[in-house]
Design a protein that fits this description.
18-stranded mixed β-sheet, Diaminopimelate Epimerase, Chain A, domain 1, alpha+beta, globular
């Protein structure tokens, strides 16, 4: 089975072209094996690029633990790059189907190939039961969450998948690696949750580290960065347009006031291709 390794701001996945390749029946098992950084190709998960009856392509993604996720903001940018660069659909405006719905993307070219991608992430979901979360508030803004004896003020947003945004003075290893995995499985998040620890640099600039549901810490999270953009506005910390510095690079975010959609722009990089023999 042929595969391609790609990343968006360091959030790396193994991509398989389902238009051409025959896929095994056990996709969660494949995701777990192929994502292993010692015994597999290595990555934050597996993303399949599949035919769609409603869009240019369909994206199906699995985390490293084999669990299937609704969406990945960095992943969809790489899917758009693959679809354009490999001739599946060579249009500047593409539509990609995900479990969170069909998203519109615009590809930005450099030297004839896709360099960056702008994604219409759609409107944020703020209703607590749709995120889902049982934390107090609707929307859930600066709600109190106590984990292992420590209190956090959290803002919860869904961008097609659930996020818990926590603004901190410093996004330390203690917070990300210590409390991140505990918050992921906290009882207030029945579908588990992605956790963002965010430092505010200015009203237009933040730094983010993410503990990602099913994958652990990742170097970038596009849906998380989108949720951070929304949470910054809801808590009065940032403007509607920000630059988010993640461990693997920068993303540009805008929560547009006129249509209520979040727009994300960032890089998409193809690293190498190979053949999976397992």
């Amino acid at each position: 089975m042929r595969f391609t390794k790609m990343h968006g701001a360091g959030n790396d996945y193994v991509y398989v072209n389902g238009f051409e390749e025959t896929l095994p029946s056990d996709l969660p098992g494949l995701a777990h094996r192929i994502s292993d950084r010692r015994f597999g190709v290595g990555g934050d998960g597996l993303i399949l690029i599949l035919p769609s009856t409603a869009a240019d392509a369909r994206m199906q993604m699995f985390n490293t633990d084999g669990s299937e996720a609704e969406m990945c903001g960095n992943g969809i940018r790489c899917v758009a790059k693959y679809v354009y660069d490999h001739g599946i659909a060579r249009r500047p405006e593409l539509r990609i189907e995900t479990k969170a719905g069909i998203l519109a993307v615009s590809v930005l070219l450099a030297g004839g190939t896709v360099d960056k991608v702008r994604v219409d992430m759609g409107p944020p979901i703020l209703a607590a039961e749709r995120i889902p979360t049982t934390l107090a508030g609707d929307p859930v803004v600066n709600a109190e969450l106590t984990v292992a004896g420590r209190r956090f003020a959290v803002t919860s947003v869904s961008m097609g998948n659930p996020h818990c945004v926590i603004f901190v003075e410093r996004a330390s290893d203690e917070l990300v690696l210590g409390f991140g995995p505990q918050i992921e499985v906290d009882r207030h998040f029945p579908a588990r949750v992605n956790v963002e620890f965010v430092e505010v640099v200015s009203a237009n600039e933040v730094r983010q580290r993410t503990w990602e549901r099913g994958s652990g810490e990742t170097w970038a999270c596009g849906t998380g960065a989108s949720a951070v953009c929304v949470a910054g506005v809801l808590t009065g910390r940032t403007e509607r347009r920000i630059v988010n510095h993640l461990r693997g690079g920068d993303l540009e975010l805008e929560w547009n006031q006129s249509d209520n959609h979040v727009y994300m722009t960032g890089p998409a990089v193809e690293v190498f291709s190979g053949e999976w023999l397992d």
